[in-house]
Amino acid sequence: MDIDSLRYFKELTKDMNMTQTARKLYLSQQTLSNHIARLEKQCGTALFYRKPHLTLTAAGMALLEFADQVLASEQDFKGSLSDILDESSGVIRFGASFIRYYVTLPAILPMFTKRYPHVSIQLTDDTTNHLLADLQEDKLDVVLTVEKEDLPGYKSIPLLSNQVYLLAADRLLRTCYGGDLRRIKTKARRGAHLADFLRLPFYIITPPNHLGTIISNCFKEAGAPPRIYLQSAQMRMSTQIASKALAATFTTTMPLITEREQLAEDVNVFPLLYKDSIVYHNLYLSYNENHYIPKYIHYFIGLIKEYFYNVNAMDLTRIV
Predict the structure, then answer these.
(1) What is the CATH number of the domain that holds 260?
(2) How far apart are CA 196 and CA 213, in angstroms?
(3) What is the CA radius of gyration of the chain?
(4) Is residue 32 domain-shared with residue 124, that is, in the same domain?
(5) Is the pTM of this model over 0.85?
(6) Residue 120 phi/psi, 5° resolution?
(7) Beta-ladder partners of 78
(8) For the CA atoms of 232, 233, 237, 239, what is the dihedral angle to 10 degrees?
């Protein structure tokens, strides 16, 4: 059976919509229909019930299982063949959220490209849940996530104890706390309880963002809701908002590595506490260890691990 036909068939089983799948695959609807018709002729039976809407027949379900195995084997073969021929070429399907690949890739790509100039990176920017689903469906080779998944056949490596910080400028603290400023800062030197900062306006990251859930729990512990200046599902403006003394904000080790030099001189970086312990938004690297892993992917993973080994040693606390 034709590999492309099996791939198109598998995509159609996800949408169960000929028009939508053809558009996603950059095919005409007639071309996609021809591929399905060819498969049905080879199988000698219908793969889909057409009415009242597309659903798989028993033969279709059996073919889908077969297609999964064939497409996974094709990916393994391509990686194995690359090593056998020592062509040092291929594609790495890498998934991460914006802030994670924004920090990670510029740090490792110069070394990676020097060794493997003919390997390209296919980047997917998405949430942890979607990335893990894509990994399980063999759409991705390597992903960075904030959740550890103990799935059969999948390896999850802890990369970073990604510490959570509270950013607050002296200008803002002085406005809200006046002469109490020094006491507040001294108390928070080894960690900040949000109960001590409730007079401040906050830039809030909202759930279901994982960091937003962590921060929400910290406010629940403080016993009062935050004064919201701005709320968003992302934290991409944290350093800018804090530097302009508009609100207290939250960030983690990863963005702070590259953005700390952009902070205004009077912005304090307090470790955030929850139940008297430092709060972390941990990071993991995951991949399917049951598939053949080409040398260039092994090297890519090794560079990521080495980079985060060095990042783990950083303490970004700053009390001005």
Answers:
(1) 3.40.190.10
(2) 20
(3) 25
(4) no
(5) no
(6) -105, 155
(7) none
(8) 110
